[in-house]
Write a structure and sequence with these properties.
191 residues, mainly alpha, 63% helix, elongated
Length: 191
């Protein structure tokens, strides 16, 4: 019982019940995560950041900037709070949050810079495809964070969110169309 009758009730945000999924962050299976990330050409990463910050804000009663802004700019901060969550829950997972965040940010920034280089000649064709592996490296960094999230939320395999929904299928289809158009743009001769 609290001494201050006007204080908001305190809730235990760490779920101690074995097997219960705690949604302090966005739980998703690694296979579903990488499928959506790959077929949306990395755009799923923006949604992933947004969803994690939204759930974090609710779970921890956070009043800092909106999750939309955090989805764009705060990768290191997100990885840090995921790491703190793992430590707070006493889970046994060794991962270097700062290193993975750095790898992801460098890959994403480098991909965006290379994407701005005009694609002409042999070197241009090489640069035209460089953003793809760099985007996949960014996805790998986010996947490491996803694994940490799943462990911290008592769902290491992400079983509670492993099914591909009809909305996921629409995003996969749109990403496949965009990827096909990008390939046509690279390989079709200029007039």
């Amino acid at each position: 019982m609290q001494d201050n009758i006007y204080a908001a009730p305190e809730a235990n945000l760490v779920d101690t019940e074995a097997g219960a999924v705690n949604l302090a962050f966005y739980v998703v299976s690694p296979v579903k995560f990488f499928t959506l990330f790959f077929f949306t050409l990395g755009l799923y990463g923006v949604y992933w950041h947004y969803k994690n910050w939204t759930l974090y804000k609710v779970a921890y009663n956070d009043h800092k900037p909106m999750p939309v802004m955090r989805a764009i700019f705060f990768t290191h901060a997100l990885f840090s709070v995921i790491d703190m969550r793992i430590k707070d829950t006493g889970k046994d997972l060794k991962w270097n949050a700062s290193a993975w965040a750095t790898v992801g940010v460098i890959a994403l920034v480098t991909s965006n810079v290379i994407d701005r280089i005009p694609a002409s000649g042999t070197m241009g064709a090489l640069f035209a495809f460089m953003p793809i592996p760099l985007t996949l490296v960014y996805g790998l960094a986010l996947l490491q964070a996803q694994r940490a999230i799943n462990v911290s939320c008592n769902d290491p395999q992400g079983k509670s969110n492993r099914a591909i929904t009809w909305a996921n299928c629409i995003w996969i289809f749109l990403g496949a169309v965009l990827f096909t158009l990008a390939l046509l743009g690279v390989f079709l001769p200029e007039e």
